[in-house]
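Thread: Modeling a multi-component assembly for a lab meeting

Hi all, long-time lurker, first post. My supervisor asked me to bring a structural picture of a complex we are working on to next week's group meeting, and I have zero experience with this. I have the sequence lines for every component (414 residues in total). Could someone generate the structure of the whole assembly? Inputs are pasted exactly as I received them:
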Amino acid sequence: MFPITTFHYLVVAAALFVLGVIGVLTRRNLVVVLMSLELILNAVNLNLVAFSRMWGNLHGQVFAIFITVAAAAEAAVGLGILIAFFRNKETMNADEIDLLKMVERRQHSALSQLGYILLALSEAASWFDAQIIDGALNGVSWITRAVATLSKWCDKWIIDGLGVNAPATIARLISYPIRLFECGLMQWYALVMVAALVGTACYLLEVMRWFWLTTAALAIGTIAYMLLMRRVLAKASSK
Amino acid sequence: MTPVATPFFFYLLAALTIGGGLLVITGRNAVHSALALIVTLLAVAGLYLMLYAPFVAGVQIIVYAGGIMVLFLFVIMLVHIDRSSRERRFNRMWPVGLAASCALLALFVFAFAKGKALFPDRLLTLPESSNTQQIATLLYGEAGKMGSYTFTFEIASLLLLVAIIGAVIMTRRKV
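Re: Modeling a multi-component assembly
Sure thing. I ran the full set together rather than chain by chain. Output:
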């Protein structure tokens, strides 16, 4: 067997490097991709240590140690990113990292396109129903309620107020002075009848001036009489 | 004294390295890939030993096979492994990736075939017992003098600090 030289180590390292590159380029599982990265870094380390022995100094080995440090940092941060990604997408596949992609990833089949069209149509119908139909319904009900309110006011204040309650109020207001003449005394009715007779006679004789005078005299006399009678009656009841 | 670094051991470790790498990139289950990766890393550590680099081999075993692989296995444990082990292993563009990798391999073959004569036939035998001490001298310096890589060493510690903070922030539920 010929002796092992640096060249042999370089061939092993190159094979390991190519294996790592194949893993990075073709695997879907992100954990395996990171492991392939470790393979690549190991190949580089092997090269460095082999050259270190070839030249007879230790700088290559120190470089290998620094690369190990970088590999540890890379593994920690890479696996941290991986955990965060897994928490977001529930997957470990490298070809599903598309959170920053704005376009759709997959080509849509005809069926799914039809589904999207139906989805859009149903969305439009839902919007139409919610905005137009319900809106028109609400508008009509609002107008109806406004008209009903106006009608109620009209009924309360115009029909009931001016038509019914106002004449009744006027009648009641008029009834108070008229009630004064309804004292229940026979003499009073007789007196009114006499005044009416006198008035009629005056009217027939066309001397209305006498009628008014007679009426005024009768009214004054009547009121005086009533006041007198009231006092007499009050005295009589107080005894 | 015949060294342990016989050609037989080299070919055994090289075969373990390449076979482990193949299993890593073809494994259906991510746990199997991780175990194959451990085999590869230990074989590479053996190659380091053959290259008279015991300190790097120790770092390889402790940091890679001990630390990083545990990290990988923790992540595999945290995520659902069943779903991805039932899905396709390779992405849609795998022929392109394979072709690019083959082109890279062809480049390597071409470069090595052209430059094979540049490598010396015999390898140097480095002093193994003082390896760690010499690396420490390069990293930390000696007798109050800064070493060649002291500043780089500090930068590396800063890098690790940033990586720790980044990993913690990445995995927090609410940032």
